[in-house]
Amino acid sequence: MNPFECFFESRTPNWKEIFKLRGNKYYGWVLCYNGIHIDLKKHIPNYKKMKSNLGKILHFYQLNCKKNPAFGIAYVEKDTKEELFQLLNIDFRDYFIAIK
Fold first, then answer.
1. Is residue 16 part of a domain?
2. Which of 48, 63, 76, 98 lies at a 20 to 30 A Cα distance from 30?
3. Would you give the DSSP letter of residue 59?
């Protein structure tokens, strides 16, 4: 199921079927923003580090951080609500490295 197609075609997903397949998991998305005071002329995103710290990623859209205020969008799956809420504490400045 493509959520964008559902939206633009005014289709409603079969939520009962989706939740039956997904079980007792928690889902969310993370906007990986460029961070405050990051000099994009001197730093680039460390995608590998970001992905390793997000846990189970269902899909990751890599964005051009020089053209967008974010460097990615991640759709994630977590086992608990608390794990999902922990994502709100991410400091995205930690995911940039100096350009060599």
1. no
2. 98
3. E
CA distance 98 to 95: 10
pTM: 0.78
Give domain status of residue 12, yes or no: no
pLDDT > 80? residue 22: no
Cα–Cα dist 29/32, whole Å: 9
Average of pLDDT values for 76-95? 96
Cα–Cα dist 69/54, whole Å: 19
Whether 18 maps to a domain, the answer reads no
Q: How far apart are CA 75 and CA 68, in angstroms?
A: 18
- 3 state SS of 13: coil
Q: Total domain count for the chain? A: 1
